[in-house]
Design brief:
Layout: H1 8-32, H2 50-65, H3 70-82, H4 91-101, E1 111-112, H5 136-144, E2 147-148, H6 150-167, H7 170-174, H8 178-184, H9 189-199, H10 205-211, H11 218-230, H12 237-247, H13 251-266, H14 273-280, H15 285-294
Helix pairs in contact: 1-2, 1-13, 1-14, 1-15, 2-3, 2-15, 5-6, 6-11, 6-13, 8-9, 9-11, 10-12, 11-13, 12-13
The protein binds magnesium ion.
The site of magnesium ion has 6 residues, from α2 and α13.
């Protein structure tokens, strides 16, 4: 198997890159979200939200039970929720957690219908890419805990597949994420959007954001995050994040997913040192480091 030959250090280094990249995006994107003067500046307090918290709750469930189980991940979400460790929750996730709290089954509490097409499943799916033998069905089960919607699941699948590609160094060699996704995905609105973005891959981030504003709708946010991550070939991580803030929309989640992808491809090497230092001062950093140190692929 391809990954069995990798040192576990490499997997850990990339997982830490993914989590730190996600946390940087969550913190910076969260601070500037809805701030329409949207000029990046330093000197604000970094805080994390549900994007990072639910990703870590997923890591914890996988680590503690040594498997990818939706039942266990749902239990972990509920534990974090009951301990009041989740902030900035989207409406679908909140609905699911409240129903889990009164004994609802993980497969039944997620929101269905059009309002279930948020990006709340995609933003927290990352840990699955760092486990062997994960199937599409696992990605789907973990998604539907909060979002029982096909586009939300396909959004999560896009992030999962992009991260696997990055971990496998296929992004470094091919410099593409969108093209292989188009070939592998079923016909969905997300795939349609990816096809549009692939045709316009000469656009810069701000032009693309004007054409396809990244809202909380998974079709708007996931393909855009991947489009932005691909720009790391020619632009700095800092430039990418600052452009995403200028574009606006659901910036904490968009910046977080882009950060996860770039961190999985390169570890922390593409991140500004001062941003990495800020991330290391976040309250959840010790949790992150602890989970990574014990992680088994
Ligand atoms: Mg958030």
């Amino acid at each position: 198997m391809l990954f069995s030959r990798r040192t576990s250090n490499k997997i850990k280094e990339r997982l830490l890159g993914c989590l730190i990249g996600g946390a940087i995006g969550d913190s910076i994107g969260g601070y500037f979200e809805g701030n329409y003067s949207n000029q990046y500046h330093e000197g604000f307090r970094w805080t994390l939200s549900d994007d990072t918290q639910l990703t870590l709750a997923t890591c914890e469930a996988i680590y503690n039970t040594k498997k990818v189980s939706a039942e266990q991940v749902a239990k972990s979400f509920l534990k974090w929720f009951n301990e009041r460790r989740l902030t900035g929750l989207g409406s679908s996730t909140l609905k699911a957690l409240r129903e889990l709290q009164v004994g609802g089954h993980w497969a039944l509490v997620g929101r269905s219908g059009e309002y279930g097409a948020g990006n709340g499943a995609a933003m927290r799916i990352a840990p699955l890419a760092f486990k062997s033998s994960v199937s599409r069905l696992d990605v789907q089960d973990i998604s539907i805990i909060t979002h029982k919607n096909d586009e939300a699941y396909i959004g999560a699948l896009c992030i999962y597949k992009s991260l696997v590609r990055c971990l496998n160094d296929e992004f470094i060699t091919s410099q593409s994420l969108i093209k292989p996704l188009i070939e592998e995905l079923p016909d969905t609105r997300i795939r349609d959007r990816l096809i549009e973005l692939e045709k316009r891959n000469d656009l810069d981030i701000e032009e693309c954001g004007k054409l396809f504003p990244p809202s909380g709708y998974v079709v708007d946010s996931v393909p855009f995050s991947i489009f932005c991550a691909e720009k790391i070939v020619t632009r700095s991580f800092r430039d990418i994040i600052i452009s995403q803030i200028k574009v606006g929309g659901d910036t904490d989640t968009v910046c977080s997913m882009t950060g996860q992808i770039i961190g999985t491809a390169f570890g922390v090497e593409k991140f500004d040192e001062e941003w990495v230092d800020k991330a290391k001062n976040l309250n959840l950093y010790p949790t992150m480091e602890n989970l990574v140190s014990k992680w088994k692929y």
